[in-house]
Amino acid sequence: MSRRHRGLAEGQQTPAEPHVTQVMWLGSPQQLAKVDVSEVPVLSTRINVSETARDLGVVIDSQLSLWTLSAQVAAVYRSGYYQLRQLRPFVRSMSAGTVKMLVQAFISYRLDYCNSLFYGIAEGLMSRLQSVQNAAARLVSGARRYDHITPVLQELHWLPVRHRVDFKIATLVYLSLSSMAPA
Length: 183
Prior knowledge:
The protein is mainly α. The protein folds into 2 domains: 3-50, no CATH class; 64-177, no CATH class. The protein has helices at 3-9, 29-34, 70-87, 96-112, 123-141, 150-156, 161-177; strands at residues 39-42, 45-48, 52-55, 58-61. A two-stranded antiparallel ribbon has the order 1-2. Strands 3-4 form a two-stranded antiparallel ribbon. β1 and β2 form a beta hairpin. α4 packs antiparallel against α5.
């Protein structure tokens, strides 16, 4: 057990770590306009107030605007394309099955994680997520940039992102109504 964790177990206070601690004011735009505090003292350090925060990998903003979710979509978009750029140089040296498995592990996971939050988001944001899946499908199948992507997605048995979100919501509703919902 680390010294930090031993101290917490023994009830000792440990200093806040500014690089992992986030403070964010929550409220309507009118309420947030009244707050003029940019730093908050926490134990022996000062933490800057931020506009967005990440919790369990989901980015939220100070107004809890889950309908726009632009910060979360941007994070998924960036990380998805980053992973695709990392995989691209190695595709020719791997089998098609290996490439598909890696893309599903690195890209599909990112598109599916907390994707029920994307239900009902604007079409422009959904198209950014769909572009990540399309690029992943092209990487797996070897399709060119201007080839139609729908047949490629069908061949891979991948639902488009909007349908993945709908399927997840429908599955959660079914499980809830059947008393088999996740705890």
